[in-house]
Amino acid sequence: MTNEKCYTMKVVAQRTGLSPHAIRVWEKRYSAVEPERTTTNRRLYSAADIERLTNLHRATQQGHSIGNIANLSDADLSALVAEPAFSPPPQEQPPLQTPPQESDPHDFVQRCLRAVSAMDGHALTRELMTAEVAMGRNRLLVDVIDPLMRSVGDMWSSGDLRVADEHLATSIVRTFLGTLHSSNRAPANAPLFISTTPAGQWHEIGALLASLTAQSAGWNTLYLGPNLPAEEIAAAAQTHGAKAVALSIIFPGDDALLRGELAKLRQALPDTPLLIGGRVAAHYQETIEELGAHRMENLALLAQMLQKIAAS
C-alpha cells in the first residue's frame, strides 16, 4: 500500500466515516497518524493513513478506548478489529440496569459538531442537555462546551464551517448557557464575580462560561454582556464590590485599543484581580503581566484561581 501523502482531509473523512474534528484530535492528542502539510498548511494523508484511521474507528465502535489503541502497530490494530466484539449474555444485563448513555466528552463534542455541520439546532440542544445530565455541569462546561466552541472557531477559520454554521452554534450555545446561568444562585454572602468582554469584543460565549464556572465555585456572579468600555466595567465592580473581574478576548490579537482599555481598567481597579482569557489572550501576555493581571488558559485554571481568591 502506497505511503504517498496525497489525500485531503475531506477525502479521508468520507472514506473513514470520522469527522474532521475527530481526525485532528486523534492526530494531535494521540499521534494516531502523521499527515504531511502543504505550503498552505493543509493536511495530506496516505492510503495507509486512511486504512489505519478506518481500523481505529472500527475498534472504537467495538468499545475500545482510542487512548489505549492509538499506538498499536498496523498489524496489531488489524488483528484487533478482526476479533468478534464481545456481547454479554442477556441474562447478565437486565433491561432495567442498562448502562446510561456514553459520557465520553469527546463523543459529545463530535455529535455536537455533526449537528452544527447539519445546521440542526434541535440536535445540538439535545446533545448539550444530554451531556449535562450524563456528566454534570462542571464537566459539561470544561470538557464539552469549551472545546466545542474552540473547535467551531478553528473549523470556521480553516473553512471547514460556513459563517452560517458558526452563527447557529453560537446562538444555540448562547441560549443554552443563558438558561443555565439564570437557574443558579449562590448564598448572599458569597463573593461577587463580574464577567464581560471589553469594548470591541462581541463574542460572549467565553465570558458566559467564566461566569458559570464562578457560580459552580460558589461565587455570586454578575454577567454584564459583551462590548463594555473600561469605565463601565469599573463602575459596576466598584458599585457592587466585586472581588474579581473576568474578561474574554476572542479577536483580534493585535488591537491597540484593547491594550488601552485594559490599562484604564487596571487604573480604575488597582486592587481587584483581573482574570483574562479567550482565544487570543496569549497575544496580550506582555500587557497582562505589566498590569498585574492573570491569564486564564482554561476554565479549570479559572476555577483554581477563584478558590485562591476566595480563600484569601
List keywords for this structure.
alpha/beta, 312 residues
Brief write-up:
The chain is of the alpha/beta class and 312 residues long. It is built from 14 helices and eight strands. The termini are far apart.
Distance between the termini: 62 Å
Strand residue percentage: 5-15%
User: Would you identify the regions where 5 or more consecutive residues have pLDDT less than 50?
Assistant: 85-101
State the major sheet: 5 strands, parallel
Write down how many β-strands occur, each being a DSSP E stretch of 2 or more residues.
8
Give the H and E element order. Answer: EHHEEHHHHHHHEHEHEHEHEH
Give the structural class: alpha/beta
Helix fraction bin: 55-70%
Question: For the CA atoms, what is the radius of gyration?
Answer: 22 Å
What does the overall shape look like?
A: elongated
Overall average pLDDT: 87
How many individual helices? Answer: 14
Placed side by side, the strands forming the largest sheet appear as: 5-4-6-7-8
